[in-house]
Amino acid sequence: MRRLVFAIIAVFLCVSLYAQEPSYEKVRFQGYEREYFVVVPDSIAAERPLVVLLHGYGGSARGYRPEMVDLARKEGFVLCIPQGFKDPSGECGWNVRYPNQEGLGTDDVAFVSFLVRKMCRKYGLNRDNVFLTGMSNGGEMCYIMACERPEMFRAIASVAGLTMNWLVEERPAPSKPVPFMEIHGTADRVSMWNGDPENTGGWGAYCSVPLAVGRICAANKCTYEVIENLPLLKESSRQIILHRYLGGAAEVRLYEVAGGPHSWHLDDIDTVSEIWAFFKAQM
């Protein structure tokens, strides 16, 4: 009898854990089979918001950012985590025109836009409360979407993202103001704080982080800056300097992680909660 009870409990726990996993889905888009994961909380209000989360270069949507998955269930928003496509070098990512992505035929601006429309139709989501976030290569997509599709998002948050020089040359400024935030380490050796105009890192030429954020500020018509040192998350955490650009049509934030590397900076800031708080403030 005791064994039976334990077996039932074990099955229940397995089912409960499985139910918490994001559901896997795929769709045919522009001739490619594209994949994504989605989290739909059990009890959430009607017309709930949608958050799209983009992984970094060489990454995977499967198992990505469990902190965001937990937050989606807690806060009651739908979370969509798309999978990047494999490029000619064999790495999965978003087509932001890195040199090693030459020949990659995917249009990820169109794909992300398609997923937003699909999610909103399927789950009855509020089109006015759609948000985008991503890290590194996913952060590059945040800047591109801010320029190419600003009307689709209530707010955008990039972590360790860049603005490629080709985007500056082809799209001088976003066509519409959009609330935007960037979290970036000053010692990031992959997405360098001061930019890489000569393409020494092999990712293509890109501008500095302050200039990239400044382009968004200009588009949003921000008129002044407020700077503050945030309290340390813990004694060993790095100092974070928050730059808030205000007075325009939409706020822009730059979280400068002093000496921070290329990462989500979870040892220095509750990144996921900070992003969601920024999103909620725009609703």
Can you characterise this structure?
- This protein has helices spanning 2-20, 66-75, 108-123, 137-148, 165-170, 209-220, 271-281; strands at residues 23-29, 32-39, 50-54, 78-82, 85-86, 92-93, 130-135, 155-159, 180-185, 224-229, 240-246, 252-257.
- The protein starts with a helix and ends with a helix.
- A ten-stranded mixed beta sheet has the order 1-2-4-3-7-8-9-12-11-10, with helices on both faces. Strands 5-6 form a two-stranded antiparallel ribbon.
- The protein has a single domain (21-281), classed as 3-Layer(aba) Sandwich (Rossmann fold).
- It is globular.
- The protein contains seven helices and twelve strands.
- The protein is of the alpha/beta class.
- The protein is 30% helix and 23% strand.
- Strand 5 (85-86) and strand 6 form a beta hairpin.
- Mean pLDDT is 91; it is low at 1-19.
Structure summary:
This protein is α/β, with parallel strands linked by helices and 283 residues long. The protein is built from seven helices and twelve strands.
